[in-house]
């Protein structure tokens, strides 16, 4: 890997385009290096993972709205929308599919200096691939790039400390990945990256306080923006530059300012793209930093016995976990039984309480209003707090995969004064966890979440197509679109009318 130092530059400074971070990323995207076998295998796993969570979310309100919007943009030659027949303008197909993927907070993740769900790159790249009849092997190349860029931006640039939403890294990554997939030149990819980043820098209020369904839409919007940016760049349109380093650029005014230097790792020329292997998916439908606490709660409940005897629970964890989903956020909504599903998804106090009581976690039942309103749950929930532990913060940011951790130490104090202590560094499904996900687990997640939504024969057809993606010829990627039983879609909520028809 090469480390690129990135800082603000004065307009009068001699700073050639080839030194811009956007150009460095464009060069990585344009590098025709082969995709390693293990990277390719993981790309296919994540396509399955996205389909699994899309099946589980297909009748939810936000997904239905996005699908209806996409249906107003039919195209003779276009892309597929999850669950339904027909072809649609690719940016709108990516929008609908992106919301379906993101709605349940149930797909892959990478955490470092910032946060990310790099699987959000899959809908826009698949949509463009279907629109332009791209080969399956080029889709894989593009996704390897998109994961590489987003993950390495997350390693090098923290957005969260400045309350900028993490989709700012996603827009640039998707633009770069599309550039790789379409075999565009560095200059075109450079302009697409600049436009995409400029249009996807937004505040983090979408994940603060009372969280709404926009949390699912924001990444889908970034994918839509990336497609449109690449289209304009391919037609010769330029971009704001240098987008990161300019006097009025992202670093100067949105991030740490002119005095700060970021260090962004990127593959060197000819170096394979393997960053996807450092990311991890979710066994549980909840914010990633609650994955290990869920498994920890399931493990500890047998030692406690009668949960009524709990006096208090303190979760010692990293700074990010404490301030994003813990009591360090100072969000009273995280203790409100009437809070939205999205808010409860970002309350480790609620999640730990329910996991302790139920010994399991479910993407629907665990968030049901009647579940959140159970008096014994509310009582236990309000006994839980988080504190930052410097050691967990250090491990969160460690560059050593064997040491990097997103877990917590739980101290459960009983009414008798006895204290039960246990800790878990990584979730069971993590590559270093007790039950790491491989192809078998991805397929099992898909079949479980698709049950009753996608007919068994259609499930088998889709999984067979995924296996054949590396060899698919132009037009073959259309087969990645999954049909959902129409009786299932009839259960989706009726949405109001809007502008699009």
Give an account of the 3D structure.
Monomer. Residues 284-468 form the MmgE/PrpD C-terminal domain. Keywords: Lyase, Tricarboxylic acid cycle. It is an enzyme of class 4 (lyase). The protein has helices spanning 21-30, 37-57, 61-71, 90-102, 122-131, 136-156, 167-181, 186-199, 214-234, 250-253, 291-304, 319-324, 341-345, 348-358, 369-372, 375-381, 390-396, 439-450, 456-468, 486-489; strands spanning 2-7, 74-79, 261-266, 310-317, 384-388, 408-414, 419-424. It is α+β, with helices and mostly antiparallel strands and 501 residues long. The chain folds into two domains: 2-278, 2-methylcitrate dehydratase PrpD (Orthogonal Bundle); 288-424, 60s Ribosomal Protein L30, Chain: A, CATH 3.30.1330. Strands 5-4-6-7 form a four-stranded mixed β-sheet. A hairpin with a 4-residue loop joins β6 and β7 (419-424). The protein is globular, with a radius of gyration of 22 Å. The model has no long low-confidence stretch (mean pLDDT 96).
Specify Rg, calculated over alpha carbons: 22 Å
Give the end-to-end Cα distance, rounded to a whole number of Å.
Answer: 49 Å
CATH topology of the largest domain: 2-methylcitrate dehydratase PrpD
Report the sheet with the most strands, covering strand number, pairing sense and barrel closure: 4 strands, mixed
How confident overall, as mean pLDDT? Answer: 96
- Identify low-pLDDT runs: none
Q: Can you identify the CATH class of the largest domain?
A: Mainly Alpha
- Strand line-up of the largest beta sheet: 5-4-6-7
Count of alpha and pi helical runs: 20
DSSP E strands, number: 7
Total domains? 2
Give helix and strand order, one letter per element, not per position: EHHHEHHHHHHHEHEHHHHHEHEEHHH
Shape: globular
Assigned CATH superfamily of the largest domain: 2-methylcitrate dehydratase PrpD
Protein name: 2-methylcitrate dehydratase
Family: Belongs to the PrpD family.
GO molecular function, one term: 2-methylcitrate dehydratase activity
Catalytic activity: (2S,3S)-2-methylcitrate = 2-methyl-cis-aconitate + H2O; citrate = D-threo-isocitrate
């Amino acid at each position: 890997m090469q480390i690129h130092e990135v800082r603000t530059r004065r307009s009068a400074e001699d700073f050639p385009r080839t030194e811009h971070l956007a150009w460095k990323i464009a060069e990585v995207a344009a590098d025709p290096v082969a995709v390693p076998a293990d990277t390719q295998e993981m790309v296919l796993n994540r396509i399955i993972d996205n389909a699994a969570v899309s099946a589980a979310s297909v009748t939810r309100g936000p997904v239905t709205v996005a699908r209806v919007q996409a249906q107003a943009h039919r195209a003779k030659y276009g892309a597929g929308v999850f669950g339904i027949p027909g072809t649609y303008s690719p940016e709108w197909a990516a929008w609908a599919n992106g919301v379906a993927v993101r709605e349940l907070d149930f797909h892959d993740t990478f955490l470092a200096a910032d946060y990310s769900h790099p699987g959000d790159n899959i809908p826009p790249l698949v949509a463009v691939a279907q629109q332009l009849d791209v080969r399956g092997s080029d889709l894989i190349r593009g996704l390897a790039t998109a994961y590489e860029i987003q993950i390495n931006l997350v390693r090098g640039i923290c957005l969260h400390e400045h309350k900028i939403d993490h989709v700012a890294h996603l827009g640039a990554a998707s633009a770069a990945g599309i550039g790789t997939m379409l075999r565009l030149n560095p200059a075109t990819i450079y302009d697409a990256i600049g436009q995409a980043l400029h249009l996807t820098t937004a505040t983090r209020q979408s994940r603060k306080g009372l969280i709404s369904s926009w949390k699912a839409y924001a990444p889908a919007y970034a994918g839509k923006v990336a497609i449109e940016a690449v289209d304009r760049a391919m037609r010769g349109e330029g971009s704001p530059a240098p987008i990161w380093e300019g006097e009025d650029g992202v670093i100067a005014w949105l991030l740490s300012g002119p005095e700060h230097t970021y260090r962004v790792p990127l593959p060197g020329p000819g170096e394979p793209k393997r960053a996807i292997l450092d990311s991890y998916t979710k066994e549980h439908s909840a914010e990633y930093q609650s994955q290990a606490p869920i498994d920890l709660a399931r493990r500890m409940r047998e030692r406690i016995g009668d949960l009524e005897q709990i006096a208090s629970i303190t979760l010692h964890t990293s700074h990010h976990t404490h301030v994003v989903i813990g009591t360090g956020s100072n969000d009273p909504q995280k203790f409100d039984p009437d809070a939205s599903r999205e808010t409860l998804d970002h309350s480790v106090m609620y999640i730990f309480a329910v996991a302790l009581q139920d010994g399991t976690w479910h993407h629907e039942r665990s968030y049901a209003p009647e579940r959140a309103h159970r008096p014994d749950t509310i009582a236990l929930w309000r006994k839980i707090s988080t504190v930052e532990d410097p050691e967990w913060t250090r491990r969160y940011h460690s560059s050593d995969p064997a040491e990097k951790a997103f877990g917590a130490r739980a101290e459960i104090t009983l009414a008798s004064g006895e204290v039960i202590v246990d800790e878990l560094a990584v979730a069971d499904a993590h590559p270093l966890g007790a039950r790491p996900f491989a192809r078998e687990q991805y397929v099992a997640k898909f079949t479980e979440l698709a049950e009753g939504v996608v007919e068994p024969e259609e499930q088998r057809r889709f999984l067979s197509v995924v296996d054949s993606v590396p060899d698919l010829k132009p037009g073959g990627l259309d087969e990645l679109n999954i049909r959902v039983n129409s009786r299932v879609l009839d259960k989706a909520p009726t949405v109001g009318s809007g502008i699009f028809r």
